[in-house]
Write a structure and sequence with these properties.
Elements: E1 2-5, E2 12-15, H1 27-48, H2 50-63, H3 65-78, H4 83-110, H5 112-125, H6 127-140, H7 142-157, E3 174-177, E4 188-191, H8 192-204
Antiparallel strand pairs: 1-2, 3-4
């Protein structure tokens, strides 16, 4: 009999000299060690391909949104006792998000000058970082940048005319929204508030354009 140290729990145990020496003292230690290795491997794999996996997940959700909604509705009909556990938290989450947006919007209106001064000061202090982030954005979103340039030139030349917000009808802080960036002159005119709300819904998968 030879004395060895378990690679998982680091405890001493006795083993036979014949054959291949064991690395673990018991089957439990072996299972726990292999589970830890799998968890670490999966975590590293996810970190390496985080953007790709998130994009696939978002695309899958957008493709099968109707199916998931139908399945959820049918399941709730079959199990009405769970309705309050599922729907109430979802509604609370939506209400919380809308309240946060309203609060942020009110704060931005009250502190416009303060925020503008802070952004200018930050950009002056971090010129390289600001330039790097802008270049990175332009490289990853070439179609968006080209579409915005064409749209702004069309507005300046008079080919396009800014319209009131199609949701609330206001004329202040009007943004141009493109459902398809390959068609830069097909524009939806929205105020800043409703433009951000639309992008949030599209990003989170509540709305498909």
């Amino acid at each position: 009999m030879a004395q060895r140290i378990c690679q998982h729990c680091k405890k001493c145990f006795l083993s036979k000299k014949e054959g291949r020496p064991p690395k673990y003292c018991s089957t439990e230690c072996y299972k726990n060690a292999t589970n830890e290795k799998l968890i670490n491997y999966n975590h590293e794999y996810y970190l390496k391909r985080q953007e790709e996996l998130q994009g696939k997940h978002r695309q899958w959700y957008q493709d099968k949104m109707d199916e998931t909604k139908e399945h959820r509705e049918q399941w709730l009909k079959e199990h009405p006792e769970y309705e309050s556990y599922i729907l109430v938290p979802m509604l609370k989450k939506e209400i919380r998000k809308t309240n946060d947006i309203i609060k942020r919007h009110k704060y931005n209106i009250k502190n416009k000058k303060k925020q503008k001064a802070y952004r200018q000061d930050y950009n002056k202090k971090n010129k390289k970082r600001h330039a790097e982030s802008q270049n990175k954005y332009r490289q990853h979103n070439k179609d968006k940048v080209a579409c915005r340039i064409i749209c702004t030139k069309a507005v300046k030349s008079g080919r396009l005319h800014r319209q009131p917000c199609e949701i609330c009808g206001t004329v202040k802080n009007i943004n141009s929204h493109h459902n398809d960036y390959s068609k830069p002159l097909e524009v939806r005119w929205l105020c800043r508030k409703h433009h951000m709300e639309l992008h949030r819904k599209v990003k989170e998968g509540y709305l498909i354009i």
